[in-house]
Amino acid sequence: MREKSLKSSRKVPGYKAAEEWPVLAGFVKAYWLFTGGVILEYDRTVRTYFGVLTENSEKREERMSEKRLIRTMCPMNCLPTQCGMRVEVEGNQLLSVKGDEQHPESRGFLCIRGRATREIPHNPARLLTPIRRKRRGEDAWEPCSWDDAYTMIVEAIERTQRDRVGLWRGHGVGSTGINTPLITRFGSLGGFQHWVSAIVCWALGGYGLGLTGVLKTNTKVDMAAHSRMVFFWGATLASQPGTSPYLVAARKRGAYVVHIDTRRTEASRHADEVVLIRPGTDAALALAMAHVIVEEGLTDQAFVQEYTLGFAEFADHLRQYTPEWGARQTGIDPEQIRHLARLYATRTPAMIVLGGSSMYKHQHGWEASRAIACLPALTGQLGIAGGGLGPRHGATAQANGLADVTADVVRPQGSYIPSHMASITEALTSGSLDVLLLLGANFLSGFADSNTVERGLEKVGLIVSYDIFMNETIRRVADLVLPGTIWLEELGLKQTATHLYLMEPALQPVGEVRPLSRVLRELAERLDIPDVFPWQDDEAYINALLSTQKLPSGEALTVAELRKQGGYWQKTALSEVAYPDRRFDTPSKKVEFWSERALQAGLSPLPSFTPAVEEEATRYPLRFCQGRTLTAFHSFYDEGKVLPTLAKANPEPEIWLHPNDARPRKIETGNRVLISNGHGHFEAKALVTEGILQGVVWMRDGWSGVNRVTSGQQTVPLVANDIIADIPGGQATYDAWVDLQNV
What we know:
This protein is of the alpha/beta class and 743 residues long. It has 28 helices and 25 strands.
């Protein structure tokens, strides 16, 4: 399969096949040194704590025949990274978790998050039976049977209208890669509310890219082989550690790496140049760079003329965005903006690796990706090896994906709430929902303005959570909890931008846990909703998903065939380079500097920048930001607290602030501080560091209380919410201006 892909790649202009560039032996393992002491060893104490007791050598010898090595995937959803995993089991006990050295992409790497997953199966905090709250307002629970749980749900649904029932899915049900289409089928056929949960994550960035028309990305293999310039723009290696060795390989080959962010991260260690800009000013930097590129004649006129729309209007529009203007917005020097523009336009091929979520979490976040996507179009860097955009959360490469198994679904008429966070919050607070099913989601952790959201949840008659551990939302508002299986107890299928991976079951389900596919089927039967699961079993369902993947014979790939392939499959029709045909994701099939869709929806038709509204800044002078770290993933596993490895790495919430902000407040590293504004407050431990800009504070997302201070206002009006196919602009703003004081 690999040879076929490389041959097809040679048809792309400027593409040099991967086997023609020197392979850097051991480059993956060399890179992983960047984690330093972060990866913690799974010591004897932890093993004993979870009942995986060490046996003497004689007894172990006797039991060797019962041991099995099974290849699977890490249950984390660190897209675009998905790492291979090899587990050792004996009986129904998990003995060890290691990286899969034969995995085509991760090559044996498994970060601290993946290594910590061995603490899940036999964890004493794991939910093993349905439980229901005794009385609202009290954190008091009692066990109940599955029949009783189903009866509670069905009776609550039957007492109301179907469109007053909501389904919200989180990353938790993505651990095996196959549940999202089933939730869509169940929700649509049942006439329930269900939403694209990417609106709390990567969708707003995708929305801006979709307006310009540049959604697909080149691969990390292409970056390693061909990029001479890499802009790591708002992207962190915590989100995509699997990209790291390819970035290292590109740099060893001579590529120049620039890291643009609001703070120093692990990606800064691999950059030749680090540029720290004010939060929310990425669009301003991109527009000022575009001004320089046009003003100095650094555009690729042939590409612009043939493959773009609205250049004349865009060029005229750019006159106002001088480097001096950009400097006032971003806080960096005008000459540095000129330097970055010239570097990007002349050291080609140049690739931009965009952040997937955090850089868009402000009032006008979509403007950043809208403007940045114009840079490769101005310089002719699209559709060529080493150029374009690089791996990004929520993006796809140029390849066949999985089949749409919801295409036959017809949703009954109803009053449906769009995938628009402000509208969902309003529906909650107005009492428009009577039943809410939370599927692998910590709702209060994910939504902005969680204080208002919680008040709305209190008006919902029945809140059901399907999960494997307790979390903040369950403790505060859920009425019924359904225990789910974990990734090692199900058959699954995960995908990256370039590959598909089979996940074989390794353990038998414990207690009374059930897979989500079974829960949805059984609820559908009780509610008389036909065709939710029209397949014989999970393997037949996965075969349907695989039907777009073709064997050399022309027949569709199946689970049986995937097993023969070792569980790995390179996607059919993969090109390492996106848009080799220069047909882009817009109605015109051109890159649209001028967007008629945006104009009709009341947005600026040209890329724009809107400064942050700083009404609260006089009272609350610090700009609050949040993002990811390598040692956690959102609020997974009760904020990481139930897994000893992650709990040791993240013992409590920690907030970064600059020494010049700490000094007048008499705050020192380690102090307990109160973070507050007009919306709410929470506490954290202070970390005083020059790794962040003055006037900005930052902390890891997922902690309980973080979103008590965030705004929750809409970023895109409803009329513009759905103008990009399958990518709503419905994120609410996570903007916050705060102040800190010692507790």
